[in-house]
Amino acid sequence: MITLIIGTNRPNSRARRVASLYASLLHTMGAETQFLDLADLPNDALESTLYHNTGKHEAFNRLAAGLDASDKVVFFVPEYNCSFPGALKLFIDGLPYRGGLRGKKAALVGLGTGSQGGSLALSHLTDVLMYLDSAVLPQRVRLPFIDKELTAEGGLTTPLLEQLLREQAAALLAF
Questions:
Q1: Contacts of 123 (CB under 8 A, 6+ apart)
Q2: Percent share of the chain, pLDDT over 90
């Protein structure tokens, strides 16, 4: 089982549409997937999931439980203010310290409206994941100009970008 983490709590996000495309690529390779969408992050997560409250919020625990069923995760990370979204950091910080992502193998897909395709966000997230003892696949995919590249149906207008996703998915399965 591979968990696809939509790294923003924005409803109907581009990250969700790219994750759906990625899931279809993995399914053609025979992999089973599940979504962990931060749009489902509890509204009160900031006040009730951190520090002494870790592990006590039922809705947060249900959202995070999907991680237990998988040893591989794919993060779909839009770049917000030259980093990854605060909702993703909140989710990671709400997991048991080093427990929720420890030992997981992770692939990263960055989305940006500029030419770098989320490069800074992926760099910051890689640092966090490495600190938490996750193994990060070196083959990171960056999707630049996502506002122009992503179609309404969830496809990509540049075939090379879909090819990069397919190659990364294959590398993740072999990882």
A1: none
A2: 79
